[in-house]
């Protein structure tokens, strides 16, 4: 490929300049079309006839690896059907450090192990369906405030000089934030997106230590790094620091301005040798690698292009709608990407995501024979949003929540609201039902509650991505309080009805202290954003057609002060610093360390049946070694790509072949670029930069996902689960490990396995966990390696992070 052809792959052609949210340039000579990058993690964004799948958080609540893999496949199939080449998901960061973090609902809960296993299952699923997955956001994007200069003009934003810096210690980086990225790299993920934030005071997308060393060297990532949209802040530095693709092409906040760090300037930097051509070859190889490395993914032909436009719902429109340029052409083919199987997967996952937090005296499932003949469904969050199912990017919150807002939102083809689904079930059972949707004028609700045998109060709380504010929640939530007067609604209803079931439809933890212990609050469900299926899942659980099996993928605290706060004001500084002071003590690990009793702990979730767990078995498969073996040397390069030494005149805009579209980014030089080529002095590479390949891998590295010994199973752990109740149901067994403190103190418990099993009444079955080398390792920052400490490891097979069923030990000697 010529220099301009390679550059064309690295640089987005500009916001709105192609059908997808990100479009690379094409290489017509080789039949490579512009590659389409489209959100996102929960389904295909900005189009019609697609499924709105349960969110990452909902997937995590199910603790069901197999189902999440199927969800990944379904999401992959729908992207494929729409002509997307590269799907911008899964989200495995944020890690859920902050309860109010706006985008926690996109990823898989507040634990690195959970995020890693579920991220990898999703990547496998998407890529097996022929679409490249992009894991995001690397790394530390734990809040939306201050993620980009110029995003907002309220409050402190006008003084903001740089994005917030996530300051992460080396141990927490390895054991928490980078951990799931190792899983997805091991699973063969094609792309990784670097985030908006800085990491230890260097922008993530130009952080050589993060991209070149941690990701590419230590984790052995061989795919491409793409910037988040506008997260690139330099040309040469980002290129040398390991960024391979910039999106959407132009600099942040100058959409359509045609100003880019790369494109023509990357071409110039190659010609004047500021950037070694080898680096460009590496970028292009990395971008194309996923299309050759996996049998399931083929490089698209010129015909295999998107059949939709992100920018209009109409069938026909101008070719470049944002640029107001070009002929009227067909933009949308309205291809139906949905299928019965995808619906089944979505609905099943939604059911399994519902978490039963409280069920006093077994008032649930609803039973007419228990005297529930009159139902009231109260709360606007149970009904239709008056703005419809599809506010742009799902920023409407005045009804049943299907998702948070932002780029991970998907258009709903329809929505089953809680009211609709509950009404249907009530009718079928001869139960009478009334509704009340006013959350402020509560007299009528009180009147209705007086007559109800049971009131189901549906309440919500939402958040989303930082470019949208809802009611002054700038992406992140301002608090963990229920929205729309939810607390008062519950309190007032409890004064009038003795059986109140609260359904919390929310993006994360909410404070329940005002009402959770009230005698009349007989049951509480937590329902994360579950896409279009939300109401169906709620009703099936309420009426006992489905036995709840969801588990909380985060902790709900009793006191707000137990959560990590959002950094939302600048104080005297202009470059906000966010020190991740919790270190490796994330979520339940913090509560356990300080023996703080949460309201509901990580992993908690009740069932309508009773399970017993017995017969713990721990079997050594491979003997544990304290230190990792040295990885093999890298293979010598079998081929080096010849540098293109053509005349810069060859890279001039081919005016005889085409006219430039205003605002579109091209790789070509303009004559003034050529003139400046001659002026450029010899450029010194940044200190420490070495274009030559090293021949020794770091001890922690050497293979995809890091040193291959890390992935060896050392122990197989199993236990027997028996369903002793009268209802069939799923059981989630969780394995927590307590490490010895020979070298360094560790959290009292860390999740290191989970398994879900479905059992009929009186049936028993085995749950199994593979404990890998990495699962017993700590990151030793001094020696820069993973070490298995000698000593006693306690293994807890548990029903939640606090409820241990079985306990065993592993002794590792020197
Ligand atoms: C910004 C978001 O942070 C990212 O997750 C998304 O993929 C891009 N925008 C593209 O929409």
From TrEMBL:
SMART domains in UniProt: Fn3_like (SM01217)
Residue span(s) of domain Fibronectin type III-like: 731-801
Top-level class of the enzyme under EC nomenclature: hydrolase
UniProt keyword Hydrolase, yes or no: yes
Pfam family for this entry, one: Glyco_hydro_3
InterPro entries attached to this UniProt entry: Cellulose_deg_GH3, Fn3-like, GH, Glyco_hydro_3_AS, Glyco_hydro_3_C, Glyco_hydro_3_C_sf, Glyco_hydro_3_N, Glyco_hydro_3_N_sf
Annotated GO MF terms: beta-glucosidase activity
Known pathway: Glycan metabolism; cellulose degradation
GO biological process annotation, one example: cellulose catabolic process
Reaction(s) this enzyme catalyzes, per UniProt: Hydrolysis of terminal, non-reducing beta-D-glucosyl residues with release of beta-D-glucose
Gene3D superfamilies given in the database record: Glycoside hydrolase family 3 C-terminal domain, Glycoside hydrolase, family 3, N-terminal domain, Immunoglobulins
EC number: 3.2.1.21
The keyword Thylakoid is assigned to this record: no
Keywords per UniProt: Carbohydrate metabolism, Cellulose degradation, Glycoprotein, Glycosidase, Hydrolase, Polysaccharide degradation
Family: Belongs to the glycosyl hydrolase 3 family.
Name assigned to this protein: beta-glucosidase
